[in-house]
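Structure in, sequence out. Go:
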């Protein structure tokens, strides 16, 4: 509230100053930008007409139009200033919000090319958003595409983690998204990705100082370990029929090993016990079928 009042006071002071200095170009531009940011676009337009080449003002209009999804108007401004880092960033983020990643990438490449040293401070969040968008496409895609999206997601998220470890919330969000991405990939593809998921979540657990985050992450780790146990059991159950009883016992052993590792609450232990029961029922059915097959011979 105090900050809002402070900004409003500063804005009114600028307006009063403008009345005394109506021809001050810099002051006119500052007032117009404030009008755009306050969504009073009709008050900013007359000022833009008298300074149509001002890049700062045009950028604000472009960002405003993107926020209103008036893409054609924003594109006309982008054509005037195709190399503007901040405007290209806003285009990339707008398309990423809409999960139109192929449209977003040309703009993100311009940002990365024009600001390789991250002087604007925009790169960590851009990498995070691209990675998160690719990650969101894994579950709904066919196997080949899902693998590609997962690989791309990991690449962008790892960039945040390796290059921008001091980016605070962005760094932690990248770690969380990386853990979730590897978890999704582990469910669909390699069980080894589940180990990478646990590693990312544990790194986040060690990094964050917020207790509520630590509690949430601990549950995420338990969930991934349960997935790993379930996947391991599935892998053992998917073998050929002949040594079936032995493989059922191995599957149960894998689950028990994970359960003892987890330090789980009672609800989780009961859930895993249910998996034991299912596996033993399947083993009993398999033994019965095998006995019947021998009898019929």
């Amino acid at each position: 509230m105090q900050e809002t009042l402070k900004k409003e006071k500063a804005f009114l002071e600028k307006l009063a100053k403008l009345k005394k200095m109506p021809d001050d170009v810099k002051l006119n531009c500052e007032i117009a930008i404030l009008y755009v940011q306050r969504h009073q676009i009709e008050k900013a337009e007359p000022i833009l007409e008298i300074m149509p080449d001002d890049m700062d003002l045009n950028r604000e209009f472009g960002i405003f139009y993107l926020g209103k999804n008036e893409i054609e108007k924003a594109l006309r401004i982008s054509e005037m200033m195709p190399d503007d880092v901040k405007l290209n960033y806003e285009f990339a983020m707008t398309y990423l919000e809409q999960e139109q990643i192929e449209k977003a990438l040309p703009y993100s490449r311009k940002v990365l090319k024009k600001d390789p040293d991250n002087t604007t401070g925009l790169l960590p969040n851009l990498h995070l958003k691209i990675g998160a968008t690719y990650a969101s496409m894994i579950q709904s895609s066919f196997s080949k595409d899902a693998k590609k999206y997962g690989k791309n997601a990991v690449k962008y998220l790892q960039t945040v983690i390796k290059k921008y470890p001091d980016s605070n919330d962005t760094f932690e969000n990248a770690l969380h998204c990386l853990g979730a991405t590897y978890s999704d990939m582990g469910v669909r593809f390699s069980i080894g990705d589940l180990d990478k998921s646990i590693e990312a979540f544990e790194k986040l657990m060690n990094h964050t100082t917020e207790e509520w985050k630590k509690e949430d992450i601990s549950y995420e780790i338990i969930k991934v370990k349960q997935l790993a146990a379930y996947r391991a059991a599935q892998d053992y159950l998917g073998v050929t029929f002949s040594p079936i009883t032995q493989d059922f016992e191995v599957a149960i052993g894998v689950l028990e090993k994970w359960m003892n590792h987890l330090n789980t609450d009672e609800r989780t232990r009961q859930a895993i016990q249910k998996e034991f029961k299912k596996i033993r029922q399947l083993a009993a059915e398999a033994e019965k079928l095998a006995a019947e097959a021998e009898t019929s011979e």
